[in-house]
Amino acid sequence: MQLSTLLNISIPMIQAPMAGVQNWRLAAAASKAGILGSIPCGMLNAEQVVCEIKNFRAQTSKPYNLNFFCHDMPKLDTQQQSKWLQKLAPYYAEFGLTPDNEVGVLRRPFDEEMAEAIAPYRPPVISFHFGLPKSELVAKVKSWGATILSSATTVEEGIWLAKNGADIVIAQGIEAGGHRATFTEAKLDEQLQTKQLVAQLVEKLPIPVIAAGGIASHQDVLMMQKLGACGTQVGTSFLLCDEADTTQVHRHALKSLAEPSAVTNVFSGRPARGIENRLMLALDFIYEQTPSFPYASAALTPLRVAAEKQGKGDFSPLWSGSNRRGCQEVSIEAMVAILNGK
Fold first, then answer.
1. Alpha-carbon distances, residue 217 vs 98, 323, 338 (angstroms)
2. Element (H, E) at 308
3. Per-residue pLDDT of the chain (342 residues; tens, 9 = 90+)
4. What family is this protein classified in (predicted)?
5. Cβ contacts of residue 75 below 8 Å, gap of 6+?
6. b/e for 177-196, b at 16 or more Cβ within 10 A?
7. Which of 36, 18, 19, 40 is nearest to 28 (CA)?
8. Which DSSP symbol is given to 153?
9. DSSP per residue over 231-298, as a string?
10. Which 8-state DSSP code applies to residue 36?
11. What is the Cα–Cα distance from 237 to 327, expressed in whole angstroms?
């Protein structure tokens, strides 16, 4: 069954939720264009999420997706944080900055408080990253009539998601930008390209599969459909669109194509794909002493701000998939048309 039928959209495509570069405005534009717009909620509190829903619904009655993280939230390890600040000290000195112990705005998992806050709005689609929340919360979301999506980076993760409440599995290939959705002990070198993962999940799962990662053209969309995907999820190609809040530093990196993308854990504590920059290279991309997710990012914020004032993305998470050749400075509507072969 096509995604358009499953999610009540006219084009079988999802705009990937991208925290930090978008809010309800991009999601509303995507939904108006005929695909499923997504609102990233992992860094928002319950009141902020409700505000996003209200703003979206004031613009359109089209369906939308709320995206949440569902990781285990560790306690703050002060010793780990101290070592991280020591590692970053030379960079702080370079900018004349003084480190502090603030943790900043943390990415938090979906919980009872959030569920209670959004229940009155009966969101049509809820997607999760890093697995699924506890079974009681999955049941609560389903009681609203919501369709549940979650991402898998391996066949084993996809099988687990299908058995534990996901209605549709997103096959997140290694080419995908942003955080890897991995929630098992699977190693990065064991994770497949999108086309391989889609083919295997379609064969193994009793539920529909969406392709995500490296999809930047109509030809890519058609290829995923031929492999059996019910639809696609696209993120990177929307980063230069008019409705995106992508910073100028990030936009420049996306357009230049000078640096490749790579998977790193230095910006958040979890592996994520972004455009190579100074910090990633200095710490060899995967740095074993990066603080546990989500505590790593706070110490980088002052460095990011200082560097970006100089027009540099040295300490910025320049999230991007491996294929950014589809990026164009056009409206969401125009980009959807391009991806749809119009």
1. 45, 10, 7
2. helix 297-309
3. 689 999 999 999 999 999 999 999 999 999 999 999 999 999 999 999 999 999 999 999 999 999 999 999 999 999 999 999 999 999 999 999 998 888 878 899 999 999 999 999 999 999 999 999 999 999 999 999 999 999 999 999 999 999 999 999 999 999 999 999 999 988 998 899 999 999 999 999 999 999 999 999 999 999 999 999 999 999 999 999 999 999 999 999 999 988 999 999 999 999 999 999 999 999 999 999 999 999 999 999 999 999 999 999 999 999 999 999 999 999 999 999 999 998
4. Belongs to the nitronate monooxygenase family. NMO class I subfamily.
5. none
6. bbbbbbbeebeeeebbebbe
7. 36
8. S
9. EEEE-GGGTTSTT----HHHHHHHHH--S-EEEE-TTTSS-EEEE--HHHHHTTSS-TTSPSTTTTHH
10. B
11. 4
Say which residue the tokens 């101290």 belong to: 82
Q: State the burial class of residue 113 (Cβ atoms within 10 Å of its Cβ: 0-12, 13-18, 19+).
A: exposed
CA–CA distance, 171 with 113 (Å, rounded to integer): 29
Contacting residues for 241 by C-beta, under 8 A, at least 6 apart: 26, 29, 328, 329, 330, 331, 332, 335
Q: Which amino acid, residue 57?
A: R
Domains of the chain: 1-71+107-239+326-342 (3.20.20.70), 77-105+242-319 (no CATH)
Closest CA to 218 of 199, 241, 246, 237: 237
The Cα 5–Cα 288 span in angstroms is: 44
**Phi/psi class of residue 128: alpha, beta or left (left: φ > 0; alpha: ψ in -120 to 50)?**
beta
